[in-house]
Amino acid sequence: MHLRSLSHLTAVSGANCAVVLALVLAATAALGLGRVWRLAAGFVVLAGFVVLVTPEPSVVRAAGMATIVLLSGVLGRPGRGLAALSLAGLCLLIGDPWLARNYGFALSVLATLGLLLLAGPLSRRLRRWLPAPLAPVLAIPFAAQLACQPVLVLLSPTLPAFGVPANLLAAPAAPVATIVGLVACLLLPVLPGLAIPLVWLAWLPATWIAAVATVTASLPGSSLPWLGGPGGVVLTLACTVAVLAVLLARRPGRSTLVLRVASTALLCVTVGSVLGIVVGTGLGRAAVFPSTWQIAACDIGQGDAVLVRGGGRVALVDVGPDAALLAECLDTLAIDHIDLLVLSHYDLDHIGGLDAVVGRVGVALVGVPENSQDAALHTELAAGGAVVREAARGDSGTLGTLAWQVLWPVRGGSSMQTGNPGSVTVLFAGDGIRSVFLGDLGEESQTALLEAGPIGRVDVVKVAHHGSRDQSAALYAELDASVGLISVGADNGYGHPTSTLLQLLGSAGTRAVRTDQDGLAVVAPVGGAPPNQGRATGQDLVVWTEKVGGAG
């Protein structure tokens, strides 16, 4: 997600390809080689470039376009960019029609098309307001961003507010990283002593690009909300045409005036709507959001990330599948430090967002690692300053005004120690709410949890495994929770939450709160809720859900 604003650099490998090819052709010309030998060297380097970088769709597109340009040179017919792009795209799609469904290929083609068709006219128009040397520098990323945006909204229904500035800052580093990195790769097998310093030298511009992406993605308002799906594509195309009409219209005739007025009106309405959503959502949340919330289930798709707060201290149970989504939730809740992190187990939908909290964790409770990759997460957390503890039944502590204890797994057990059956299960109690978090425990491990000792009634249960059907009715009956939080993604393909689970919760008198339908969901004691917001099923809880717009 951090590279969303740098689509121009990530999608357009043609720039890197052109730099390498230009250096080779210049070197062969300096050696006095004939045109045929120069072109042969170019073809060999292109093939090596694809193998070295790996034949990703955008790389293949760039190499195919360069090949056509070189072939046209052999025939004495200088190739033009638009014709080369069209022919390369057509040949590649004939060879592999599935490329039409590949986002990388589409972004590569669109970005190149934007540069070929829009960069020049935009640069000439920008010269009216900007110094001549600055105009093309701004026009190039702007043209690429305009061309790519209709596809980018399919990947994420947002607009990158700082996309063009990010490209301006990062673009100068790209050719340096490409050239130095390529030389280092070529020298590594034969002269490793010389290649290693070059690798470190290439690391500097690459790190700069990553830093620009990270910083711009973390700035307030870096992603503006936008309509998703086909409607979002159509709206983006309309706004793109409107922007170009305003910037590039030349003749002051009546039709041009009408076009400009219509385009300006469309842009004003769109910008106003986006700002209204951003400001209105923030003000609306501030007006009804329970300030004394204790539990918050983040809307992070198919995965778990639930916060618990007590006395100014914060715990996070799992981190979801995506660091950017988790970071957005933490920003919404104004959380900048995690006092207690619980990683129930090591499936990607529970640990994929770890980068969002590394360096911000005090103590981490983790399960038994299954392999070296799991153990590496412990090392990463410890390197970020966290105290990492392998958790088991009997472990306990405090979180501000709350007490916590680990209920599962049982240390030293012969089975159900790892994976879903070994999910670290934690109970929190205090400030009028008892809550339990079941990770991805299945029916067998839930039954074993019950046999390990009584749990007693809770107010809130984080439903196991996103609402799968593999559940113990006896456990949920004993818990007798007022609210069951189901962290689940919309249209997840697993059928979660299942009708079996929903019926089970209904039989236990537990109200299901689902992040796929309700969005961010927070639970607070009744005394801390805004007036007239209603109550949850229990008599001592208020549940506020973002998509519904208030307490249920």
What does this protein structure show overall?
The chain is α/β, with parallel strands linked by helices. 51% of the residues lie in helices and 14% in strands. The chain has a nine-stranded mixed sheet with strand order 8-7-6-5-4-3-16-17-18, with helices on one face. The protein has a seven-stranded mixed sheet with strand order 9-10-11-12-13-14-15. Helix 8 (134-155) crosses helix 9 (163-170), helix 8 packs antiparallel against helix 12 (229-248) and helix 12 crosses helix 13 (254-288). It is elongated, with a radius of gyration of 28 Å. The relative contact order is 0.07.
The total of beta strands comes to: 18
How far from one another are the termini? 32 Å
Secondary structure category: alpha/beta
Q: Which whole number gives the mean pLDDT?
A: 81
Order of the strands making up the biggest sheet = 8-7-6-5-4-3-16-17-18
Percent in helix: 40-55%
What is the tally of helical segments? 20
Q: Per DSSP, what share of the residues sits in E-state strands of 2 or more residues?
A: 5-15%
Task: Please give the radius of gyration in angstroms.
Answer: 28 Å
The major pleated sheet works out as:
9 strands, mixed
Can you tell me the overall shape?
Answer: elongated
